[in-house]
Amino acid sequence: MIESLPRREREVFEALCSLGEGTAIAVRGALTDPPSDSAVRTLLGRLEAKGLIGHSTRNQAYVYRPVEQADSVAETALQRLVHTFFQGSAARAATALLGMEKALTRAEVDELQRAIDEARGEAK
To answer: Measured in Å, how far apart are the chain's first and last C-alpha atoms?
Structure first.
């Protein structure tokens, strides 16, 4: 469903996912070239009407949060990225991501090795 959102709604949704939760002001601050405060509130209302986000009231302010599981949203976004920029190759995307990182922690290297071992059918 995320792919079918209009551009601005998707931007607002992705900003909120990145924040984890936030007020309309926080979401607006996370956007590049943000629309007006009232436009952000309208977009958040549309996303809530579509069931993608919810809100609670904290200190008389609406605090929005994604309803969909973050892993599901991240996987969909990553699939779109891999398809668009890496000809559908997860290996090419992973190589590009690793090239962006100057140094990996030992835990990150171990996690990557486990994923490689699983892909080879060598899970331990």
So the answer is: 36
* Residues 6 and 62 placed together within one structural domain of the fold: yes
Quote the number of domains for the chain.
Answer: 2
DSSP state of 23: -
Strands (E), the chain: 53-58, 61-66
pTM check: above 0.85: no
Interatomic CA distance for residues 109 and 55, integer angstroms: 38
Say yes or no: 12 and 62 in one domain: yes
Domain that holds residue 21: 2-66
For the record, the structure tokens of 94 come out as: 């992973």
What is the pLDDT confidence band of residue 71, given thresholds at 50, 70 and 90?
A: low
Answer whether residue 124 shows pLDDT above 80: no
